[in-house]
């Protein structure tokens, strides 16, 4: 057996720091995105603290992800207003707060579009994914990793993935999106990779109130419409994200197979894409079986809708690559 070992000088302090933070000893989303920035100047322009091979695409990837997080902030804050509104039986307060959530999800989608401006698919596929991947459900490291001086038995941890962001977990809990089976298990496991305060916040949302029951019970037209719009926008976000995964993983994976078979293509592209381990083809950096997982989660979101088809609020698949330029002119990273 060919065990991979992290030397004692790294593994011992890494595990100690991780334990204090309440995080597993691997690069998590909290390390790579949430805490990986500082202000470059008083105007608030940001730069990364930690980077890895992949040049400007790495910076673009983390910065765009951070922008998506930033757009979510008003929506996250409004969750408390929704909960308080339900406790006070105040339909107007709940509707207003839910409208902020809905707008936040839409802004997140606009920010997500920037990924096309700043991240090169072959660099993401060929270089970056290796650094984001972990040692669980990874055929390249089937035994996991030995943390020397910590434990003799190898340990397995998932790589960094936005599934470890608390945002969509919060919105799912608020709207009552029910995840089942392996997708639910994967999402739940990803909560172990979040900061404990984020994890507790998510758990608190669902244990407080049921927004969906409140909406059904009140049968208020505006409230129902706003709830439906939130669900529709969450589906749209997930649809757009699936498009991204197609462009950044599915297409390069099939191009890699094609190039390796024919040995033709531009030398640079060939080299970049060939570097990508075939073992990671079907896996996200978090280790999920990509498309099945993402489409299941998207469909479970659709199922949350109260009226399958509300006025002008139908959930349509989003393939609007042409919107990217528009979004980029409104939101830029400096
Ligand atoms: C090149 C860009 C991206 C690619 C290729 C990508 C790929 C993936 C993959 C493969 C998964 C499945 C879980 C896993 O195993 O990792 C996933 C999950 C997820 N990603 Fe991304 N992602 C990208 C950018 C982003 C960005 C910028 C965000 C925004 C914060 C994001 C948000 C999510 C969320 C929330 C999930 C969990 C699934 C869900 O709740 O719908 N992703 N991503």
TrEMBL record:
Q: Which GO terms describe its cellular component?
A: cytoplasm
Q: Name one GO biological process term.
A: L-tryptophan catabolic process to kynurenine
- Please tell me where heme b binds in this chain: 241
- UniProt keyword terms in alphabetical order: Dioxygenase, Heme, Immunity, Iron, Metal-binding, Oxidoreductase, Tryptophan catabolism
Tell me the superkingdom of the source.
Eukaryota
Family under the similarity heading = Belongs to the indoleamine 2,3-dioxygenase family.
Which species is listed as the source?
A: Labeo rohita (Indian major carp)
Q: Which GO terms of the molecular function aspect are on file?
A: heme binding; indoleamine 2,3-dioxygenase activity; L-tryptophan 2,3-dioxygenase activity; metal ion binding
Full protein name: Indoleamine 2,3-dioxygenase 2-like protein
């Amino acid at each position: 057996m060919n065990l991979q070992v992290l030397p004692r000088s790294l593994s011992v302090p890494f595990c100690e720091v991780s334990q204090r933070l309440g995080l597993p000893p691997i690069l998590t989303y909290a390390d790579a995105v949430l805490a990986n920035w500082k202000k470059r100047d008083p105007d608030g322009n940001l730069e990364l603290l930690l980077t890895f091979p992949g040049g400007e695409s790495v910076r673009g990837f983390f910065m765009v992800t951070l922008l998506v997080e930033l757009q979510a902030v008003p929506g996250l804050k409004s969750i408390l207003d929704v909960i308080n509104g339900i406790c006070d039986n105040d339909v107007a307060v709940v509707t207003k707060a839910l409208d902020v959530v809905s707008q936040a999800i839409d802004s997140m989608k606009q920010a997500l579009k920037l990924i096309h401006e700043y991240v090169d698919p072959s660099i993401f596929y060929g270089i970056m994914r290796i650094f984001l991947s972990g040692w669980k459900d990874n055929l390249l490291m089937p035994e996991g990793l030995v943390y020397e001086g910590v434990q003799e038995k190898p340990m397995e941890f998932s790589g960094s993935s936005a599934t470890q962001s608390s945002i969509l977990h919060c919105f799912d809990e608020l709207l009552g999106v029910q995840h089942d089976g392996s997708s639910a298990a994967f999402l739940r496991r990803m909560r172990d990779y979040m900061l404990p305060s984020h994890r507790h916040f998510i758990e608190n949302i669902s244990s407080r109130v049921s927004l969906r029951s409140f909406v059904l019970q009140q049968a208020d037209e505006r409230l129902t419409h706003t709830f439906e719009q939130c669900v529709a926008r969450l589906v749209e976000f997930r649809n757009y994200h699936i498009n991204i995964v197609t462009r950044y993983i599915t297409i390069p994976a099939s191009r890699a197979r094609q190039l390796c078979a024919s040995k033709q293509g531009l030398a640079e592209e060939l080299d970049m894409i060939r570097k990508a381990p075939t073992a990671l083809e079907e896996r996200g950096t978090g280790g999920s079986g990509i498309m099945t997982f993402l489409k299941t989660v998207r469909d479970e979101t659709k199922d949350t809708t109260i009226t399958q088809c509300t006025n002008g609020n139908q959930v349509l698949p989003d393939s609007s690559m042409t919107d990217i330029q528009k979004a980029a002119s409104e939101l830029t990273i400096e």
